[in-house]
Design a protein that fits this description.
Radius of gyration of chain B: 13 Å
Shape of chain A: globular
Largest interface: A-B, 30 and 27 residues
Mean pLDDT of chain B: 94
Helix content of chain B: under 10%
Low-confidence stretches of chain B: none
Distance between the termini of chain A: 33 Å
Mean pLDDT of chain A: 93
Number of helices of chain B: 0
Structural class of chain A: mainly beta
Oligomer: heterodimer
Order of helices and strands of chain B: EEEEEEEEEEE
Low-confidence stretches of chain A: none
Largest sheet of chain B: 6 strands, mixed
Shape of chain B: globular
Order of helices and strands of chain A: EEEEEEEEEEE
Number of helices of chain A: 0
Distance between the termini of chain B: 38 Å
Chain lengths: 117, 112
């Protein structure tokens, strides 16, 4: 596809369940990012991959959050033992560049809206 | 701490007039700034960016101004159109870093 694709678009889970969110970046994009967006706020950085290497996971809020990109393309964000405060929109973005350079912006998918009951 | 701030939660402008959206930042290490536009139920869409070596960047109806000494940037939209009604996010990053830091967004309403 032409853009970043995320699935599912909506996910409802009961507290304590595990969830997995998928991101399919733009073909050829080296960099992949996950962000969490709470209602009324801007996206907040979770983690960054360069190809299959996870180079920064400083934004992951707890060890219940885990991300992988095993073949350097599709990525999965997994949340274990979900809690109500995990309810948010999870956005994936990809970029052609390594790191950030002018004229190489991050392109976002439409996100997965996660609701924990 | 909020490193990127958009102090106006909303802005209402008449069609055809100028829209000015403002953003302040605190981290002097930021050297790359972007504006994104977001419609409901969609992801943010990249609009325009500026590197700290410049003080202005223009793309059609959109112009971004950067004042490094004041740690302030603004997005000008001229002329404003009803289709510009959306949430606008300011974001900042480092040239050789990776993550972006976002403001909380400003809701722009363009009235026809």
């Amino acid at each position: 596809g032409a853009g970043v694709s995320q699935s599912p678009r909506y996910k409802v889970a009961k507290r304590g369940q595990d969830v997995a969110l998928r991101c399919d970046p733009i073909s050829g994009h080296v960099s992949l990012f996950w962000y969490q967006q709470a209602l009324g706020q801007g996206p907040e950085f979770l983690t960054y991959f360069q190809n299959e290497a996870q180079l920064d996971k400083s934004g992951l809020p707890s060890d219940r959050f885990f991300a992988e990109r095993p073949e350097g393309s599709v990525s999965t964000l997994k949340i274990q033992r979900t809690q109500q405060e995990d309810s948010a929109v999870y956005l994936c973005a990809s970029s052609l560049s390594v790191g950030q350079h002018s004229n190489q912006p991050q392109h976002f998918g439409d996100g997965t809206r996660l609701s924990i009951l | 701490d909020q490193q990127v701030k958009q102090n106006s939660p909303s802005l209402s402008v008449q069609e055809g007039r100028i829209s000015i959206l403002n953003c302040d930042y605190t981290n002097s290490m930021f050297d790359y700034f972007l504006w994104y536009k977001k419609y409901p139920a969609e992801g943010p869409t990249f609009l325009i960016s500026i590197s700290s070596i410049k003080d202005k960047n223009e793309d059609g109806r959109f112009t971004v101004f950067l004042n490094k000494s004041a740690k302030h940037l603004s997005l000008h939209i001229v002329p404003s159109q009803p289709g510009d009604s959306a949430v606008y996010f300011c974001a900042a990053g480092m040239e050789y870093g990776n993550k972006l830091v976002f403001g909380a967004g400003t809701i722009l309403r363009v009235k026809s």
